[in-house]
Amino acid sequence: MDRKGRMTRRNFIWTATAAAIPAGAPARLPVPVHRVMDARAQCPPERIHRFWWSIWPEAFRDFSRGGIELRTSDGPGEIRRSPGDNPVLIGLRRGVINLVLTDHIPMNWDSGRTLAGVTVLHQGYHVCMVALRYAHGNQIPFLSVNTCVHELLHALLQDIFVSRPKWHQSGGREFQVEWHATRLWLFHDGAAIRRSAQVYLDRLRSPVVA
Ligand SMILES: [Zn+2]
User: Fold this and answer.
1) What is the pTM of this model?
2) How far is the CA of 133 from the centre of ligand 1 (A)?
């Protein structure tokens, strides 16, 4: 309300928002994820099945329990590879996390490490790429967690803005990610992730960053 007791627009919005959230319920944070299946990936059907029926639902559930709602969209796309060159990614969108699913990470991004996933800013696009060949669900707390959760956390915890390979070489960021993923998985605690993700999402939406 202003001094004369009228409800201002800002107050109205604030009150309406507060009323919509039941007391005691943690606010849920929506995160836009655009899923792109690499049309050129040569994956056996059982590998694709394992991803969609086991790995992805587990990631979705872990985030959801921690108050983070993955809002997904799907679209066509592909990775055009050429020897020694940067891969060309088709089908990416701005202002969202592009979750690109392929069989194995392109050589340039992987450097022969047979990674299950990488997360990068690629020509202004936010990309989490997952190699279905090596992707897995939660296995060992603090050491081997769901590949999708791991890669999405590199974005939400803002590692994506730190130029590689700096944080890939230092074990510190990896441990942080595994630690937060384990808290999500076992204790459904996403408070710290939500705080960082809020800042991340502001930057994701801002065209200046690109
Ligand atoms: Zn990592």
Assistant:
1) 0.85
2) 16
Query: Residue 57: phi, psi to the nearest 5?
Result: -60, -35
> Are 35 and 99 spatial neighbours (Cβ–Cβ below 8 Å)?
yes
Interatomic CA distance for residues 95 and 97, integer angstroms: 7
For each of the chain's 210 residues, which pLDDT tens digit applies?
Answer: 454 445 555 554 454 444 444 455 567 999 999 999 999 999 999 999 999 999 999 999 999 999 999 999 999 999 998 777 689 999 999 999 999 999 999 988 877 778 999 999 999 999 999 999 999 999 999 999 999 999 999 999 999 998 765 555 567 889 999 999 999 999 999 999 999 999 999 999 986 544
The Å distance, Cα 105 to ligand 1 centre, comes to: 13
Strand, helix or coil for residue 107? helix
- 50/28 Cα distance (integer angstroms): 28
Q: Give me ligand 1 centre to Cα 150, in Å.
A: 6
User: Rounded to the nearest whole angstrom, what is the distance from the C-alpha of residue 208 to the centroid of ligand 1?
Assistant: 26
Q: Which amino acid is at 180?
A: H
What three-state secondary structure class fits 138?
coil
Contacts for 199-202 with beta carbons within 8 Å, 24 or more apart? Answer: 199/158, 200/155, 200/156, 200/157, 200/158, 200/160, 201/29, 201/31
Distance CA(163)–CA(105), nearest Å, equals 18
